Amino acid sequence: MARKVLDEEIAALFYGGVSMSIFVDFLDKLPPNNQIAVGQMLNVLSEDDLGFIEDYLLKGSPIPNNIVMKIDSAFIKAGFPQFTWENCRTDTRNMIYDGWFDEVD
Fold first, then answer.
1. Contacts of 33 (CB under 8 A, 6+ apart)
2. Is it the case that residue 94 has pLDDT exceeding 80?
3. Using CA atoms, how far apart are residues 8 and 99, in angstroms rounded to an integer?
4. Which of 37-41, 70-74, 88-92 has the weakest average pLDDT?
5. Phi-psi region of 16 (alpha: psi -120 to 50; beta: other; left: phi over 0)
6. Predicted confidence band at 93 (pLDDT cuts at 50, 70, 90)?
7. Which of 18, 39, 51, 99 has a CA positioned 20 to 30 A from the CA of residue 26?
8. Mean predicted confidence (pLDDT) in 77-90
9. Per-residue pLDDT averaged across 76-105, rounded?
């Protein structure tokens, strides 16, 4: 069921010049719990913003901070506030999200 939903998200995601296969490969390499969240985040972003992620995946180009902020905001809009660009590739199945990223010193 989750794979079908993910495939539908991917199909709805892409238009214009953004390469679909690079994103499919990226999503397939993610932990299962992260795939739908990342797919929905990608669906929220504009084609221009997706281009920065595409360059990161293809060439290893750094993603500018303003785009990272848009990605983090897209996770929130997609209903996954526990995810950010920094942690979306981390397997969170055995972690508990309590709203805190670190302990306060």
1. 91, 92, 93
2. no
3. 30
4. 88-92
5. left
6. confident
7. 99
8. 92
9. 76
Distance CA 92, CA 83 (A): 10
DSSP state letters, 25-49: HHHHHS-HHHHHHHHHHHHHS-HHH
Q: Which two tokens stand for residue 54?
A: 């595409």
Q: Is 43 exposed, middle or buried (0-12, 13-18, 19+ CB in 10 A)?
A: middle
- What burial class does residue 92 get, using C-beta atoms within 10 Å of its C-beta: 0-12 exposed, 13-18 middle, 19+ buried? middle
Place of tokens 């069921």: 1
C-alpha to C-alpha distance for 37 and 83, rounded to whole angstroms: 8
- 28: phi > 0 → left, psi -120 to 50 → alpha, else beta; which? alpha
pLDDT in tens, 34-62: 899 999 999 999 999 999 999 999 999 99
- Are residues 55 and 61 in contact, defined by beta-carbon separation less than 8 angstroms? yes
- Say if residues 23 and 47 touch (Cβ distance below 8 Å): no
